[in-house]
Amino acid sequence: MPIAVEVVTQEKLIFSELEADMVVVPGAEGVMGVLPHHAPVLTTLGFGELIIRKGRAEERFAIYGGVVDIRPNKIVVLADIAASSFALDEAEAEAARERARQQLERAQSEVELQQATTELRRAELTIRVNRKVRASGPSIRILTDDEVESN
User: Fold this and answer.
1) Which of 25, 56, 104, 111 lies at 20 to 30 Å from 138 by C-alpha?
2) Which of the listed residues 62, 86, 110 is the one where a domain comes to its end?
């Protein structure tokens, strides 16, 4: 029996799959693999990579905090910010990393230091996820029935 997965941000539902085989969640306390029939869990998310597997296909997301509600037959990821690996721009992330490093050097207060540190972590995660996807060869995106029929 597969597990349904939804990835939601404050703005919208960004991903939905009704029949995933496994989900790898970047929990605040560590990475957690979730299979169908998992015990219910409600936990916070850290900065990390969310991986949704269905057969030989994978969908990857850079997740920047939030919560995840895990049920035996469904996972709902409520991310503060999430970006699909298909939407990540490494050049933009490199520029953001450089801006964050400059902000760290100029930080005058604890608040500025925390903001710059968060931006640096976000940029480095984006770069890491993007490079991991590129290094693993061509990505296989999970297609909806409508996308399969239109091809």
Assistant:
1) 25
2) 86
Q: Any idea how long the chain is?
A: 151
Q: H or E segment at 130?
A: helix 110-135
Q: Are residues 94 and 80 in the same domain?
A: no
Residues 55 and 31 in one domain: yes
Which residues span the domain enclosing 80?
3-86
Residue 14 lies in a domain: yes
Instruction: Please state the pTM of the whole predicted model.
Output: 0.72
Per-residue pLDDT of the chain (151 residues; tens, 9 = 90+): 799 999 999 888 989 999 999 999 999 889 999 999 999 999 999 988 999 988 888 888 989 899 999 999 999 999 998 887 776 677 787 788 888 888 878 888 888 878 888 787 877 777 777 767 666 644 445 445 554 344 3
In terms of Cα–Cα distance, which of 70, 83, 72 is closest to 43?
Answer: 70
